[in-house]
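Readers of this paper often ask what the protein records in our data store actually look like. Such a record has a labelled line for the sequence and another for the backbone structure tokens. Nothing more is needed to write down the fold, since each code stands for a local backbone conformation. The remainder of this section carries one protein's record, kept here as part of the documentation.
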Amino acid sequence: MIALDNVVHRYSAKAHALDGITMNIGRGECFGLIGSNGAGKTTAMRILATLLVPTGGRATIGDHDVVADHLAVRKVIGYMPETFAVYKELTVEEFLDYTAAAYGFRGDDRRRRVESVVALTDLGSKRRAGCDSLSRGMKQRLFLARALVHDPQVLLLDEPTAGLDPAARIEFRQIIRELTAAGKTTVISSHILPELAEFCTSVGIIERGKLVAAGTIAEMLAKVKGARTIEIEVAGDAGAVATILRGRLGVESVRIDGARATVKHAGTREDAPQLLRALVEGGVAVVSFGERQSTLEDIFMKVAAFEVG
């Protein structure tokens, strides 16, 4: 559905925003594009949105080249920028009606499209409010509705939850799940990694303008997995955990914090029960013992550290 082939963008001879990005995003995927500030996420999004011409390489959405066939691309995408500019004199309903008209909808079709996105984004109570009077959270909903008003196949959302309160973020996640279930292909750039892990089907990590890893979260965990983290809680002080486990095969480090111990273990999963047995035989009153599951943040930190190193 979406393909970038060796895409390069330079803002100057020495400033490479993108340095040979190649990736493919399948139809119906919810793809998270993650990276540090300045990594190149927004540049990639603007190229896909036909707002920026790449210095080199090629990007396509469907069968359409984003440069040579940009008008066709704009018909099938909905773009939500990180920052918003609204017509101060228009109400929410008027703004969406104007957008639907710009996409060629007329009469009843236009009214139905506006009603549909107002309902989806829960803007019914604000439909007659001035656009400029809305809170940031409500403006986020308004621009998501704007991106959806022509029922696009592809959504490009640049930092869509930045600045939202927790309740608004939960509501946004639910909307994205509904859109994915409806078959939309969605690309979301964000630095809020725990959120992306909740609704993205796959992710890509950009660092210094390069795509350093991409795939499902399970695939990326398999690629970067190192020592597993075992978290232990004991009754009393956990100092004895360090005494017993340090130096044992596979144990790389033991960190103590009161009654808790965090163990980096490079052995197999089958070796872990041996550690628990050693603690129990050593007289340690173990309250809990378990492996901490790796997260998207863990993946990003490992990949980013490798790239910087």
